[in-house]
Amino acid sequence: MKIKDISVCMASPDGDKAAYDFAQALASANNAHLSCAAFTVLPPMILGYGDGSAGEVYASIVQQTRDTMSGAWAKFEERLNTQDPPVEMRRIEAFPNRVEALSAMNARHADIVVVRAPGKSDEQPHADMLEGVLLGGGRPVLIVPEGWTGTTVGKRAMIAWDASREATRAMHDSLLLMQDDAKVCVTTVDAKPGDTGHGAGPAWDIGAHLARHVADVEVRNEDSIGRSTAEALMDVATSFDADLIVMGGYRHSRLQQAFLPGVTRTLLSEAKVPLLLSH
């Protein structure tokens, strides 16, 4: 199966330019339909001070947000209308607590969803978009680092393999992005042989399986040697000159992820190349 339907989730035309540009290039390369989920995220409700003025202040802030984003999206849509093939624009207005659910709904109608990597600011909704697509939409999500200027991925892909269901799903989803002459590095970190995990040889079987789909596959069993798993994976990605990192996303619950330095969270904030996540 080839990619024929792509969605890009955006919170602003300027801040998410890298994600849009890549989604547009991916759609063009695959002769695929591209839709843009253009979010206007309204400010959360503010509590009053007892003088009755909070409601008026809040209504004014909401209207200002609507006016600002409506103008920004209108200008962006004008540019989209000049492109060939045309891009479908879907405007979505939501309070912060609805972004995740609406992102999930939008994702179910696409083969793959592109989102900008979440920033450090809590005001940016990209983390909610990402989790909505991944956990609620059931679709693979391609996370593009802010400021990334590449136009292709899948020529040199590193697959982070931990023998989990999520990693299996991500590996197979990544085949949608693989070039015909792709080179793939399947990487484990501190993996141990086991009957129900990696089997007799960590990554041997999955490497052989992947070699039936891709011509050039290598397996690296990496020792962390004092590094975190995420650091070890990023070191391999750099040495392999990967243009894509593939991994299963959020094996632990989101509550655990909030308090633990999980591999997913670290790579989302530190990876220099696009990251394909599946759940």
From TrEMBL:
Residue ranges of domain UspA in the record: 156-277
Q: Which Pfam families match?
A: Usp (PF00582)
According to the record, the segments passing through the membrane are none
Regarding protein family, the annotation reads: Belongs to the universal stress protein A family.
Protein name, please?
A: UspA domain-containing protein
